[in-house]
DNA sequence: GTACTAGAATAGGGACCGTA
DNA sequence: TACGGTCCCTATTCTAGTAC
């Protein structure tokens, strides 16, 4: 193994990981980190942060670049230098560029990189911009080999309801609210409050809730000893889903809205990203955390009149029948659905069967009026179909198996070459969706099947 | 051997924001 | 002012690995 930062060595490693299967991928990375020269490993770590860390952003993607920069079929003449610290400085400058002409300056810096280094380095830079390597590993896998290298911001998520996954009765039932998931992180030493989405991005519009959050967290800390960091897991709403997204995604401070706080965590460190499962278990079970929230809300309301904070209802179901009865009632009350929780489960930063969700599902039979090719691994096969919903063209790209994509792609292309005797174009497709959007399209459309048995449009 | 799980990858509508 | 990109919400399938 080379002792100087060597482009070929890192290039070979990436090619090998891309070609490997299963845990061999991580073994290759592990061996490289173990065997390679310290400087080489240091450079690799910095590259991994560029490629996988969502917090490391460049403000431009390869889509915005001129063709000649992204066309690797043409051989570029380069100076062929080894990787050096100048490269990382250049990438940092791309990150920091702002204002008028920032895009042009970024492109210029990438052109300089192309001129100075061997070809793989430009490709690595484009991967960093797009956060898309397609070598079959992502941030969580990298962190298994090099713990703590990349920011991993995770909240607990629910699986679709499956009664076989219910480990016992009763279950806790909470409403499923249709807004934006919000994690409120409170540093109780410096009294700094940050609002994050479930991907770990800040939500500046919620700043007006800061004082109320601080007052509430003080009450929580009176009820129970917490770590330095107190997190409130919540759903933020401000009217309908679209209205909520509009208000919350804006940079302007929110005026009206509700923070439905359904979980509370106390953590010892200063960084939520580092919270371990063991630390999360110290906060107790779902039942215990809910009890703490209820006590805190009760105490808080004795001396305060909350403007934003709200405790969503929580109920008990002793059987599947009771769950479905509650679901019907929830739907009649205009709720999106229910969350079913295991009262004995600990909080986890991942999708977990301790939480399950029931949501409304509807389907319609709609006419196929077009189709489009896939991207990435789906180039050369069907990306999706376009259906007609009351004059609105709705693209449906999810729900196909690989074999369906292949068959439909072939049939639809053949249909395009003839005007008569078309096989698939014009047929009906059963499409599942969550709701009709205010704009008259379909939210979360999913292909279910071709309706070979009927020709009558649902609506 | 079968069933399940986790991770990675594909796809959608629609909102705001920065840049052209 | 329009448009492209990003980021919210989300769905699904496929593969490799693990549990039963």
From TrEMBL:
This is ATP-dependent DNA ligase family profile domain-containing protein. Signal peptide: none annotated. InterPro entries: DNA_ligase_ATP-dep_cent (IPR012310), DNA_ligase_OB (IPR029319), NA-bd_OB-fold (IPR012340), NAD_dep_DNA_ligaseB (IPR050326). GO terms for biological process: DNA recombination; DNA repair; DNA replication. Its cofactor is a divalent metal cation. It comes from the Bacteria. GO terms for molecular function: ATP binding; DNA ligase (ATP) activity. Residues 259-391 form the ATP-dependent DNA ligase family profile domain. Keywords: DNA damage, DNA repair, DNA replication, Ligase. It comes from Dyella telluris. It catalyses: ATP + (deoxyribonucleotide)n-3'-hydroxyl + 5'-phospho-(deoxyribonucleotide)m = (deoxyribonucleotide)n+m + AMP + diphosphate. The keyword DNA repair applies.
């Amino acid at each position: 193994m080379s002792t100087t930062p060597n482009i070929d060595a890192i290039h070979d490693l990436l090619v090998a990981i891309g070609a490997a299967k299963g845990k061999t991928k991580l073994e290759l990375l592990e061996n490289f980190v173990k065997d390679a020269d310290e400087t080489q490993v240091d450079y690799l770590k910095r590259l991994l942060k560029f490629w996988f860390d969502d917090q490391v952003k460049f403000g431009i993607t390869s889509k915005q670049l001129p063709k000649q920069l992204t066309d690797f079929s043409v051989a570029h003449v380069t100076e062929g230098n080894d990787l050096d610290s100048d490269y990382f400085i250049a990438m940092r400058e791309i990150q920091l560029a702002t204002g008028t002409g920032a895009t042009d300056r970024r492109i210029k810096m990438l052109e300089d990189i192309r001129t100075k280094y061997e070809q793989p380095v430009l490709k690595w830079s484009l991967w960093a911009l797009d956060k898309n390597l397609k070598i079959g590993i992502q941030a969580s896998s990298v962190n298994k080999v090099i713990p703590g290298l990349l920011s991993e911001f995770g909240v607990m998520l629910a699986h679709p309801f499956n009664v076989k996954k219910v480990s016992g009765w009763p279950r806790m039932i909470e409403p499923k609210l249709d807004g934006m998931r919000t994690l409120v992180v409170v540093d109780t030493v410096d009294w700094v409050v940050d609002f994050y989405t479930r991907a770990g991005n800040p939500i500046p519009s919620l700043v007006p809730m800061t004082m109320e959050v601080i007052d509430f967290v003080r009450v929580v800390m009176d009820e129970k000893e917490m770590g330095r960091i107190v997190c409130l897991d919540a759903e933020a709403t401000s009217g309908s889903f679209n209205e909520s997204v509009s208000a919350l995604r804006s940079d302007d401070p929110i005026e009206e809205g509700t923070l439905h706080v359904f979980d509370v965590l106390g953590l010892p460190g200063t960084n939520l990203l580092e919270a371990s499962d063991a630390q999360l278990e110290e906060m107790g079970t779902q039942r215990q955390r809910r009890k703490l929230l209820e006590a805190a809300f009760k105490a808080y309301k004795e001396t305060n009149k909350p403007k934003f904070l709200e405790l969503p209802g929580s109920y008990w179901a002793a059987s599947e029948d009771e769950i479905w009865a509650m679901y019907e009632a929830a739907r009649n009350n205009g709720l999106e659905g229910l969350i079913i929780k295991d009262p004995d489960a600990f909080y986890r930063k991942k999708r977990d069967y301790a939480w399950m969700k029931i949501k409304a599902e509807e389907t319609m039979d709609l006419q196929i009026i077009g189709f489009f090719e896939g991207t990435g691994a789906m180039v050369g096969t069907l990306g999706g179909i376009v259906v007609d919903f009351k004059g609105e063209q709705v693209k449906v790209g999810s729900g196909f198996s690989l074999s369906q994509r292949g068959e439909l792609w072939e049939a639809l292309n053949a249909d395009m070459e003839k005007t008569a005797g078309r096989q698939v174009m014009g047929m009906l497709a059963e499409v599942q969706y969550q709701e009709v959007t205010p704009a008259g399209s379909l939210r979360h459309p999913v292909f279910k099947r071709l309706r070979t048995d009927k020709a009558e449009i649902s609506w």
